[in-house]
Structure formats: C-alpha cells, structure tokens
Amino acid sequence: MAGNKTADLMEVLVNSTGAFIYVIDMQNYEILYANARSIEEFGDIVGKVCYEVLQKDQESPCLFCPIEKSENHSCSLGKRNIDWENQNTINGRYYLMNDSIVPWIDNKIAKIQVGIDITEQKKIQNLLIEEKNSALAAFEILLDSTIEGLIINDENKICKRVNKVAPNLLGYSPEEMLGEKILKFVAAESYDLVEKVIQNNNQKPYEAVLLRKDGSIFPALVRGQDLILSGEKIRVSAILDITEIKSYEQEILKLAHYDLLTSLPNRVLLKEYIQRAIKRSNRTGEYHALLFIDLDNFKSVNDTEGHNVGDMVLVETARRIENCIRENDVVARLGGDEFVVLIDACETNREIVIDSVRTITQKILNALGEPYLIENYNFRITASIGIKLFSNDELSIDELMKYADSAMYNAKAEGRNTFRFYNPKLQKMMENKVYLINSLRKAIEENSMSLHYQTQVSGGADQKIVGVEALIRWDHPSEGFISPSRFIPLAEESGLIVPLGEWILEKSIQQIQVWNKQEAKSNWRLSINVSSKQFEEPTFIATLQKVLKKYRVNAQKIKLELTEGVLIKNVKETLNKLYILKDIGFSLSIDDFGTGYSSLSYLKQLPIDELKIDQSFIRDLMVDPNDEIIVKTIISIAQQFGLEVIGEGVEKQEQYEKLLQLGCNNFQGYLFSKPMAAELL
Fold first, then answer.
1. C-beta separation of 457 from 466 below 8 A
2. Nearest to 500 by CA among 456, 546, 563, 543
3. What is the domain count for the chain?
4. Digit-coded pLDDT (tens) for 515-526
5. 252 in a domain, yes or no?
6. Are 318 and 339 in contact (CB under 8 A)?
7. Could you list the residue range(s) of the whole structural domain that residue 303 is in?
8. Structure pTM?
C-alpha cells in the first residue's frame, strides 16, 4: 500500500515539472512510459515507436540524437545531462532535451528523455542573432563610409583587416595590405616617430608622413588604440589624409602674418620681428630703429581716382620702401597707408646709428617723392616718418610702436614730407591730449558738462535784454575748469563735436521751455553755436526738429550761429539747408564775421539775419584805426543788406559807446554780464 502511495507521489511530481518526460526502449525504440505533459504535447504515444510518433515522416532512429550516435548503448549507462536542442518536425517548436541511459525493468536498457519547450527563447535568440548580423553589416558600412583609412593589426603590428578607404589612400589593393607590417606604409622621415608611438596602448592623434605604393608621400593625421576582441589583442589605426588641410594651414598662416595686398609682413608678424630685435638688443646692446611711415593726403587718391588705383599706389609704395632698405631690415604694412620699417643697425654707438637711420629715412622719402605713373595718372605723394630708436630700453612692443607713431604725427605737424625722431616732451603733450579727449567723451556720455548763458542787450538807455547765447562749460573732476578754447578744438579734431553739439541743442532748447513759462524771459531769443561738422551731418535738420517737437518749442525762439567756414563749403547744399532752416523758423547769424572768408558774393545769397562782429576787432577798437575801419565796414555791410549786427566781447564803456556811435545796435560782453548758470539770470 505504501509502495502505491510512493508511486502516486512520484507521478504527481513528474507531471508537475512542466517538462515532458518519456522512456524509450533502446532495443526497439518503443516508448515504455510518458508523463501527462508528453501525452498533452504528442498524444497517446506509450507502446509506439518513438521516431514514428515524435517526428514527422521518420522511418529510422533519429540520427541527431546524441546517444543514438553511440554504437554501444550499454557503454552509456549512467550518463546524465547530455543536453541537446531540436526543432520538432511535427509542430515546429524548439525543445531542449536532456538524455540519460538507465537500466529498466526486465533487464532492458532505456533512455529517459526530459524536454522543455524553448521556442520563445529560441525566437529571442534568433532575433538577437539577426540584430547582431545587422549590426555587423552596419558596422562594415560604417567602416567603409568613414573618411579615415582604418587598419586593424594584430599584437605584432601585422595588418589583418582594412576598410575600403585605407587601400585607396595608400595605393594598394586590400589583399596587398593584408599580412604586411604597419610600418611598411610609413615614410622614412616619420619612421622613428611612428615606431615609437605605436608602442602606446592608446595614442593621441599626431601628424606623420605616410608612404604610398608608388613611392609618393602625403601628410596624415594618425591615431590608434589597442583593443581586446574575442580574446585577441588587436590595434586599430586610423589615418586621415591632411594634404588639403596643410595647404589651408599655409594659406591661413599667410593670411595671419602677411598683408594680402602687398605681401608684406602684417602687424602680427612685425611684432614677432620686433620681439626678436628687443631680445637681441638686450643681449648685445646694439641699436634697432622703428620707422613709422604714413603717406600724406593719401585719402585724396582714393576719393578722386578710386580704391583700385589707391591699391596700386600702395603696392608701388611697398616696392619702393623695400628697395631702400637692407637685407637684414624688415618692412611691414599695418593697414591703410601705414607702413613700418624695422632697421637692424648692428651698431652700439648711438650717434653712428642716428646718422645711418637718417640716411635710410631720407632715401625712403626721396623714393616716395618720385612720380607715381599708374593707369595714365601721374601722382606725386609724400610721406611723414616717425622714428624711435631702442636698445636696452625695457619698452614693450606696443610702447615702441606708440612712440614711433607719435613721432610720425610730429612730422606731419611740422609740414609733412619729413621725418622726426621721438621726442618725450611732445609725447607727453600728445598723451595729455588723448587723456583730455577720453575725458571729454566720458563727460558727454555721463551728462556731466553744463551750459552757461551770456546776455545780449540792445543799445540805448535801458539796455534791454534781447537774448542770450548758450556757452558750454566743463568743470573736470581732477583738472578743474577747462576753457572752451582748449577743449572745443579737441572736440572738432576727434569728431566729438557732433555728440557735444547735439547735447548742447538738447539742453538749451529744454531751457527755452523753462523760460517760456517766465514772463520776464519769455521773449528772449537763444543763440546756439553750430560747428561745421555738426552742420554737415545728414541728420542735423531732423535732429533739430525732433528736439523742438520733444520740448514743444517754437523755432523762432532760436538763433543758429554759423561760422563763415561752414558757409563756403558745398555752397549749393549749404544754401539748401539754410533755406530749410529759415522755412522752419530759425534765425541765422554769421559768427566771428570778418575773420574768415568775408565776401559780398556769397553774403548776398545767404538767407541770414545777423552779422556778429568778432571780439578780436573790438578789443583794440579804441587804439587801432584799422580795427575801427573793419568794424565800420561790417556795420555798413549789415545795414546795406538789412541785417542786424551784434558786437561781442564788449568789456569797456568806451567800446560800447564807440560801437553805438558806428551804428551797432546789439551788444554782448563782460560790460553787461558774464556767462552764468540759467538760475542766476
């Protein structure tokens, strides 16, 4: 009874595994036992021949069965865990089989087969294999599509595989490269380098010269890395032909160091030469000299004949300078019409060096002064040259350049077509000038300047105020009060006069708006000085209209004071602007009349309202008969043309009385009022 229970328990266990289990008589291949899973999978198979019921159209024992391949089944007794896979021909499913040969009842030798269904796992496996094959195929395509030549070597640096690019780069067929040492493809000049580098497991990219089959060479960027693939150590070397890149590098180097127009060294390369010269001077005590050359009035060539002709002049200039210097000297072009010569004097005696540099510089000036015969044009161009000597000066490159440049400007100030050596005193003056210009720019930007106003009065007993003139004042934070006679010329020279003039317009018209609300001042007319550069700005009139609109001020309240120099430039365009200003409502005055180009021929064309007698004539009015004649003439001209006239700079009572006697009707000067802040008027 107990035996039956045990057998039943075993049956339950066998059927609960999920595997199919059956027993085959190895003598006749009859199935002696099958568990429930086997019967569920293949039907009632007990007592039947295994290969007939477990396979489709099978007429003999299955040769794919591992144990069946054994000639003596009894020798396999006790063998277990003989695993094998099979795809069943009946249902097409995959099974993992485990076979064991065991003794069975009645002295039979039987095979116990245990199988599990692995169809799903097999699908996944096949999918992975497909993906692997696809990846390998994609990898092959990737290898062949790269711009680099790839060479796979074994640990002895023997070529085992290449992509399509490598043979094309080196001029071999793939078969010719296989089996060759990697160093065969390296040119002699890079052989030692490559031989050393390939000993590294992971090398950074480096340049080497490679050798083609036909003996030609080419520069390449090479990199390599050692890998372990399927247990085998390999090295992947990548080579990139950089012939075109090297060509570009040379072009870039040329662009970076040479002037495209003249092929002379540019500023960058010149600085390298100067640095070498400084080091040599510090070592030997020998002198060098920098010659800063600037063509005089070259802009007129470009403006009149065009930039193409101007470029040809520059090329010819470069050639002439080169012909004047020695082999160990250097000439460079900084840009525009600026050239620099670095002279290697090879001498420690300063006086000898100065004489030598003078000779070379004068030779350059003479050469540049010869006629330029270009495109049927005959030019005569001069140059200004600044010179800075150096030897153990402990000056930087930029300082040397600055001092030579400063000396060149001194040469221009001395009349051009000459040269000057660097002068520290003049340099100090120039530095002060630059300092003031920068300070002025900052003052305009930060709105830190101020306007003062000087009254203009009518003649007679009451001396009624008829207007005021706006005058710019600058109280520098460290320099104190700076006179307009000092900073206005700097503003003109630097171009700051335009933003400064716009600032004056804005502030003075804003002040008119304030005075319009004060009965005693509402009838005052405000005079504003306009510089020539400001007047010539294309946006000048538009700027005026914009400010008028912003503060709702009538143009009739404003008198614009213009110098005679403004009026004689571009007469047609100037007249057009003046008539537009008159139409808007502005009054127009000629400031400092008599000091410039006074001419009745242009005076009669201008729509002006007033002549202003310059204070230089009024200052000596009582002692210089010529000044009296000039003042009398100006007043007479004003009367003939129906213009108002105002004398400025009136400081003494006798001056006022004399002007009144001569017919002057309006006055301005310290006799009546000094310039003062608006709130003090």
1. yes
2. 543
3. 4
4. 999 988 999 999
5. no
6. yes
7. 263-422
8. 0.51
